[in-house]
Every structure is written in C-alpha cells, then in structure tokens.
Design goal:
The complex is a heterodimer of chains A (487) and B (415). Chain A folds into two domains: 175 residues; 240 residues, no CATH class. Chain A has 17 helices and two strands. Chain B is globular. A two-stranded antiparallel sheet of chain B has the order 1-2. Chain B has 16 helices and two strands. The interface between A and B is medium-sized, with 34 and 26 residues. Protoporphyrin IX containing FE binds next to helix 5, helix 7, helix 8 and helix 11 of chain B.
Chain lengths: 487, 415
C-alpha cells in the first residue's frame, strides 16, 4: 500500500505565488494580533493582580478580571486561526518549506506544542474559575505567573523559528545544525526582547482603546440618564433607579475607564520608547548577519514601508504626549501641562523632519541606475537629509529623550498630586484611540517588513518561495520500480 | 564616659555592662596572658571603647541579609588589595618585561597563578556585588535625606571600581591587554575640544606604547586605590553617622497615625543611635538588634561564602594569559570583560558620526542622573510602590544595561 501513496502525484495547490503569499501573510498577521495580545495582557494581569493585592486597589482587580474574561474568547479564536494557519495554509501552500524546516527544527516545534498544553490548562482554568479562585489569591497569582512563563517560553520558541529564517546560523547548511546554535542565532535575542516588549505595549494599547471607547460612551451627554450598561433596560422599564444614584454610577464608571485608559496607555507609550533602540539593535544584527535583507529594508522597495513604520513610531509619541498634555490640563496641573505642550511641539517638528524620504524614487538602486544618486540641489534625486545616518538616528535619539522625559514628568506629576479620575476630556480619549490604531498598524507593517525582507527566500539563502511551486506541479512520472521507498 | 580608677593597675573598660564583655567570650587561657598588655594598650589608645562603639551599634532587625552586601563588597576589596600586593612582588610595569614577569609568576612562583586567579575572580565578584549593593540601596530608597552623600560617595566608588577594572585589564600586556588598551585609550578622543589631548596624555604619544603602560600602571596601583580608600572611609563614616536605617522597611508604620508612632519610636530609641535628629519624622526602625553578634554573623557568612568562591574559582579557572602583545596582528578580535560589554556594545551601535555623542552624551547623562538621584527624587515617600517616578526610569536604565550586555554576548558568540 505504501507504494500506492508514493505513486500518487501531488495535486496542484490552487492559487499563484502571489495570492498564496498574500494568504499566508494575511492569516499569519491575523493570528499574530491575537497571540501577542494574549501574551502581553497576561503580564498586565499579573501586574494588576499583584498591585491590587498589595494596595487593595479595586480598579486593578477589575481590570485583571476583565482581561481574564476576555482571554477565553481571544485564545480560542487565536488558536483556531493558528491551527488553520499551520494545517491548511502552511502545509497546503508552502508544504515543502514547512515540512523540511520542521524536520530540522523538530524539537523546537515539539516544545512549542507542549507550551500549548500548558497554556490551555492554565488559561481555561483561570478563565472559568477566576471568581471562585479569589479565595486563594496568592495561588491564583501564582497560576498567572506560570501562564506568563509558559507563554514567554512559547514566544521564545517561535522566535527561534522566525529568527532562524532571517539569519540562519550556518548559511547554506540548514540540516544537522545544533539546537544551541539555533537558539543563539544572531537575531533571536533582539527579536525575543523586541516582541516581549511589543506584546505588552500592544496589550496596553488595546486596553487604552477599549477604555477610551467606554469612556466616550459613558460620558456621552445625550445618553447621560441611561448609561449604566446592564441597568439601562431596567431604568427604561421601571424608572427604578433614582437620578442621583444613576449619576453616581456614571461617575464611577467614567472614573474607572479614565483610569484604565491611562494605565494601558502608559504601557503602550513607555514600552514603545524602549522599542526605539531594541528595534535598532535588531536591525543592526540583521545588517551584520543578513546583509541582503537589511539592504532590502533600508534601500530596496521595502524602505518605503520602513519609512511608514518610522512615521508610525513618531505618531505614537505625538499621540501619547498630546494625551499627557490634555490629561494634565484637565487635572489643573498647568505648569507640567505646559512642559508637555513644548515636548509635543518638538516631537511634531522632529516627526516632520524625520519622515523625509532619502530619495525621490521607488528605491535607491533605481536612482543609482538612472545615474541620479546625487543631492537634489545638484540635479539628482537624493535627499541627503532623509538618510538614516545620521539624521534619522538623531531624530530617534531625540524622540527617545523627549518621550522618556514626558513619561517621567507625567508619572511624577501623578505621584505628587493625586489626579481625580473621570475628568478627562473627550478629545484626550480620541488621542488614545488614535495611538492604539497606530500601534496595531505598526504590528502589521512590522510583520510585512520582516517577511518581505527575506524575499525571494523563506529561509534566507536556503529555500525560496518559488520552491513551493514545485509542489504545485504534478511530479514527473518516474516508473514505480525506480521510486525511492521510505525517506 | 570612661570610668578609669586612678592608680589602679587594671583599668576597667566602662561600657554598659548589659552589652556583655566580648573579651570575656574568648576562653580565659587564651586571653589571660594578654590581659595586662591589653589593658596597657587600651589605656594608651582607648581601643576597647572604640570596639564597643563599633560592635554594639543598633542596626535594624529587618532586612539583615540585604545589609550584608556592603560589608561583603568591603571584604572583597580587601582581598583585592592583598592579592594586588602579592602580584606586585613579581610584576614589572614595562612593555618588554610585563608579560614575561607574569609568565614567571605563572610557572616559577609558588601559588603565583592562584593569586592571579583570585585577583581576577575577586574583580568579577566585586563588580557584581557593588551592582547588587547599589541596586538594594536604590530600591530600598536609602539614598534619601539625610543619606544623599552616602549615595553620591557610593556612585563615585562604583565609577572608581570600574576604572580599576579597566586599568587592570591593560597591565598583563598580552594580546588582550594590548588591544583593550588600544580601544580604551582611544575613547577619550571622541570628546570635543580636549579629546585628542586626553588621549595623547594617557597614551604618552599618538600611539599605545611603553608610556601608556607606565601611566596606566600608576593609575591602577596608586592613584585610583588612594581615591578608593579615601572614599570608602567617607562612605563608612557617613553610614555610621546616619545609621543603617535608610531602607524603607524601617519606616513602615502599623497604626493609622504614622507621625505619632514614629515620634514614639524616637523617644524610646537607644542613644547614640539612631541619628541625632537630622530627620525628625523618619528616623527609627521599629526593632533593632546589635551589630555584634547579629549583623556581624550574617556579614561573616556572606563574605565567607564569597571569599571561598573566589578562592576556588581562582584555583580552578584562574586568569587567562594570551600570547604576548603584538601590534602587527590584524586578526585579533578583542573581547571585553563581561562588565564592559554594555559599553562595548554601545560603541558597536553608534554610527561613526555619532560615537562621540553616543558615548559621552548618553553615558554622561546616565552618570549625572545617577549622581543627582537624591536631589531629583526628594519625595519623602520610600515605599517602592509609591515611587514609580524613579523606579520606572530606573527600570529602563537597568533593562538597557542588561540587554546591551546580552547582545554583546550574543554578538561575540556569533563572530
Ligand atoms: C567600594 C564600594 C562600596 C563599599 C565598600 C560599600 C560599603 C557599604 C557598607 C558596608 C554599607 C552598610 C551595609 C549595607 O547597607 O549594605 C553601605 C551602605 C550604603 N551604601 Fe555602600 N558601599 C560601596 C558602594 C556603594 C555604591 C556603589 C552605592 C550606590 C550607588 C552605595 C550606596 C550606599 C548607601 C546609600 C548606603 C546606606 C544604606 C542604608 O543606610 O540603608 N554604596 N555601603
């Protein structure tokens, strides 16, 4: 019977190279948005739960509870996408790559699968029993920490795979390389740190986004009399809730969402500051170890997407500092607010300077080919002020210092003079939404940059995307007797 | 306070009886013959009183293990001084003889190689200890009023120890030392205006050569240690002046009237510690123990474990010696010591145009912020959870340093 299966020609996979690449990328990115939120929010839950245990702050307890409740939906959806991704998309479209790659990274996948078991056990237990486990808070926190460890490990393992594709340890010899070398491949460390930080920032951004929407909902003027979500129908039906109680409830809700939005945004903003140079160090390792990919990112067509990424980064800081400014103003802290206003102006100016393209064409090789690689004032298509070295690096350093200052002075103002929650302006909440959208877009753009920078390779210098097409064609008709049996 | 009986043959040390006579702890047959000499000596120097003062100081009951880090740092520094003196018995500070003098020490001198190993491992442990000690005083908010100068002298000690490490690394004049000297003495030239002058001064010319070694040697064995000793003295004096009460756990109160609770504690505190009212509202831990034997016991345990570790590692791992310095090699890749990896990695990251900026502005800002910390954070709150305005930026800073070090390791691994 095994002979029969060998004699079958693989049927062709529907779609073309382009459509399949887009499908693979699309599903992967979708999965990433879910998985990263899950990992990041797990850290936020541990923090909030820990803080609420020390300080008895009910807001932290509520935030942790809501996030854990969200996990049930998010994990199941994200996991379903992941399974679909591996089983149908990867094996179906890029089977050749996936199977061969899976073979030499076998144990990485194996442990990756084990972490899923751990995740399922812990996450669903917490999700289904969060309230019941409140009687054993320390044990519950312990489980959250375990889940964190499990998920970090999970991410670390998948990073081994991802970084291995970009900077394979031994170029050109993917089989028989040691697992130690795989773990310590040049970009695994920066990628892991980059993603760990990014996940928490992304989770923070989503918390800010949801809170901002809720705050806007709660404080909508025309809705004011019937704002409490579950009591709305009750109020309408019976008119049962006294007006004063309703307003108090509304204010409580507004205070909570104002606080939660700010809490989430502090993570999104603060951790993005670190990303500046963690990302930089990541790019540096790519430059040192996969120069072609680096060249594509910095000088090829992807450089345009990279520029969009650069612009997005600046926007996060702009939205963030604008939020700080608005929030401090609303709290009556005018001196500090003014400092943030100045920081905001500086950030905008830096942003405008930083988003200049370095050449007015699709890519650098284009202007070289056209013999126009000279400054535009000499009749060329080059814009020397748009180059990464030193100008954009200087913008990044200045952004970093200003953002760090803004974050520090905001936290300090908050610590020195307690802020009454619930007085945020509605426009400040729109800034939070704007920031969260930019963070989300950057997550997607980042994926596109990394995956396309290897093009045409899937594993750099080892296997190309077009190798997959071979599977899509019927195998040559080798007589049965000449076919190899077994591997 | 001294209660001496005029004309009596045996002066009686007159410290509070309930503290116990620590000389009495030593078995009589041992101490007996020395009693009279001790009395004579004490009469001239007041040593007993000093020892009492030193040993029976009140220290907080809580957190004793965390306070062992400072004394362990001191002990390891002392180990460094002693092993350093032994190394000096062989070492010749000249480019022609430094390397061969170490070869001699290695092969012909009994224990020579072990001593070198101890000196190196001592340096490693010292770096780690000083970092952890600084971290503990930072997290526990010990740098706050009135201990600002404890902190500042500490930071300066930290810089001095770093300087000791880097100058020491250049002395063997093997390949590693030579190329470290080349890279490190080059760093000052990134400074604007005076940069080239400083480099020339250190190198004794445009290039690394004989004078570079002599000057670095002078720094390592005389200039820096003198500063180090002076500063340690100051650091310890300040510690005694304000008491070992900087940590936030000592300020914890249990009633809802903290001011009153602390006022009560001050009223019941033992003289002469805690401090003489420099900090009326915050000065006394709820419970204290005597430095001797409680704290000293813990200090001894930790220091002993570390010293044994250093001795063992010095023996089994020792200190490496490359081939002799060869300025003509082109292939040698200098690998910095682990505690310099963060700085080295910064050098790798900054594009040539910005190295000066990167090294001096970024590192300069970091150093200044560290020194100025007690003046930036003047909020009297000491509990870590109520100090996010300093802990968050510090988290950035520490995270950055650790990440740079890890990147450095990863980079060296993938060379
Ligand atoms: C040669 C290096 C050093 C030596 C020998 C040393 C020694 C000591 C000793 C013996 C103590 C008392 C025990 C303890 O709290 O651990 C102490 C306390 C202290 N040290 Fe250091 N230290 C050194 C470096 C540093 C550094 C680098 C810092 C900070 C950057 C620092 C800041 C402090 C502070 C603030 C205290 C007071 C702690 C309190 O009262 O709670 N020291 N030091």
């Amino acid at each position: 019977m095994q002979h029969l299966i060998l004699s079958l020609s693989p049927t062709s996979v529907p779609g073309t190279l382009v459509t399949n690449t887009v499908l693979v990328g699309g599903v992967a990115l979708l999965h990433v948005l879910f998985a990263t939120f899950l990992i990041g929010s797990c850290t936020l839950v541990a923090l909030s739960e820990g803080i609420s245990m020390v300080t008895k702050d009910e807001r932290h307890e509520r935030l942790a509870r809501s996030l854990v409740h969200a996990w049930g939906y998010i994990f199941s959806t994200g996991a379903a996408i992941a399974i679909f991704f591996v089983v149908f998309v990867l094996v179906g479209m890029w089977g050749r790559f996936f199977v061969s790659f899976q073979q030499f990274t076998f144990w990485v996948w194996f442990f990756e699968a084990l972490t899923f078991v751990g995740e399922i056990v812990l996450l669903y237990t917490l999700y289904a029993n969060w309230e019941r486990l409140r009687a054993y808070r320390l044990a519950r926190l312990g489980m959250v920490l375990l889940l964190n460890i499990d998920q970090w490990f999970q991410m670390f393992l998948i990073d081994v795979i991802a970084s291995q594709m970009l900077t394979p340890t031994v170029q050109g010899a993917t089989d028989n390389i040691s697992y130690m070398l795989q773990f310590l491949n040049p970009t695994n460390l920066p990628l892991t740190i980059h993603r760990t930080i990014g996940n928490i920032a992304w989770a923070g951004a989503l918390v800010a986004l949801v809170s901002a929407f809720q705050y806007l909902r709660v404080t909508r003027r025309e809705e004011a009399p019937a704002l409490v979500p579950r009591q709305r129908s009750v109020v309408r039906a019976l008119g049962a809730m006294p007006e004063g109680e309703l307003v108090r409830e509304r204010n409580r809700e507004a205070a909570y969402w104002d606080w939660a939005g700010q809490w989430g945004m502090l993570f999104a903003f603060g951790l993005t500051i670190i990303q500046i140079w963690v990302g930089y160090s990541y790019a540096k390792e790519i430059q040192l170890h996969s120069l072609d990919s680096w060249y594509q990112m910095m000088y090829g067509w992807i450089s345009n997407i990279f520029l969009a990424q650069f612009a997005g980064l600046g926007l996060i800081f702009i939205f963030g500092v604008a939020y700080f400014w608005q929030r401090l103003k609303a709290a009556g802290q005018h001196t500090v607010a003014r400092r943030h206003q100045i920081a905001l102006i500086l950030l905008i100016l830096l942003w405008l300077f930083g988003i200049q393209p370095a050449w007015f064409a699709g890519s650098y090789p284009d202007i070289v080919a056209a013999h126009l690689a000279k400054p535009f004032w000499d009749g060329g298509l080059e814009d020397p002020f748009g180059f990464f070295f030193p100008w954009k690096v200087m913008v990044l350093i200045a952004d970093l210092l200003i953002a760090l200052y803004a974050l520090w002075s905001y936290i300090r103002a908050r610590v020195r003079t307690p802020m009454t929650m619930g007085q945020a302006t509605r426009s400040s909440q729109r800034l939070l939404i704007g920031m969260a959208v930019v963070v989300g877009l950057m997550m997607l753009i980042m994926g596109i940059i990394r995956e396309s920078s290897r093009s045409p390779y899937l594993v750099n210098q080892n296997i190309t995307i077009s190798h997959q097409v071979i599977l899509q064609q019927p195998a040559p008709n080798i007589p049965l007797s000449q076919r190899p049996i077994g591997p | 306070m001294r209660d001496r009986t005029v004309g009596s043959e045996v002066p009686v040390p007159a410290e509070p009886e309930e503290k116990g006579d620590f000389i009495g702890l030593v078995p009589a047959p041992i101490v007996g013959p020395f009693r009279r000499s001790w009395a004579w000596f004490d009469d001239r120097t007041g040593i007993t009183g000093l020892l009492y003062k030193g040993l029976y100081e009140a220290v907080p009951k809580q957190g004793g293990w965390a306070y062992t880090l400072g004394s362990a740092t001191l002990v390891v520094i002392i180990v460094q001084f002693f092993t350093g003196i032994f190394l000096l018995l062989d070492y010749v500070p000249s480019v022609t003889n430094a390397y061969s003098s170490l070869l001699y020490l290695r092969t012909d001198d009994l224990f020579g190689d072990w001593i070198r190993g101890i000196h190196l491992w001592g340096a490693y442990v010292l770096m780690l200890l000083i970092g952890v000690h600084a971290l503990r005083t930072f997290i526990s908010a010990s740098y706050k009023k009135p201990r600002e100068l404890n902190w500042i002298s500490g930071v300066m000690l930290f810089f001095l120890v770093l300087a000791m490490a880097i100058t020491g690394a250049m002395l063997p004049w093997d390949q590693a030392a030579y190329w470290t000297a080349t890279v490190v003495t080059n760093i000052p030239h990134y400074l604007p205006v005076i940069g080239n002058g400083v480099r020339t001064l250190w190198r004794g010319g445009n290039f690394v050569g004989p004078v570079t070694l002599t000057r670095t040697f002078a720094l390592h064995i005389w200039v820096l240690p003198a500063l180090l000793l002076g500063l340690i003295g100051g650091h310890l004096y300040l510690l005694r002046r304000h008491g070992e009460f900087g940590s936030w756990v000592n300020y914890r109160t249990t009633t809802d009237n903290p001011a009153r609770e602390i006022a009560e504690r001050i009223r019941h505190a033992e003289p002469p510690y805690p401090t003489r009212g420099t900090e009326p509202l915050y000065s006394v831990p709820s419970e204290t123990v005597d430095f001797f034997p409680d704290q000293l016991f813990k200090d001894t345990v930790v220091s002993l474990v570390l010293v044994v570790f250093i001795f063992v590692m010095g023996l089994i791992s020792g200190a490496p010696l490359d081939g002799p310095a060869n300025p003509a090699t082109l292939t040698y890749v200098p690998t910095p010591e682990w505690f310099y990896l963060p700085l080295d990695q910064l050098l790798v990251f900054f594009p040539t145009q910005l190295v000066g900026f990167g090294v001096f502005v970024i590192v300069g800002i970091g150093a200044t912020l560290m020194l100025a910390l007690p003046f930036i954070d003047r909020n009297p709150d000491r509990h870590p959870i109520r100090r996010p305005d300093v802990l968050v930026p510090a988290f950035f800073f520490i995270g950055t340093v650790i990440y740079l070090a890890l990147l450095g390791v990863n980079r060296l691994y993938n060379l």
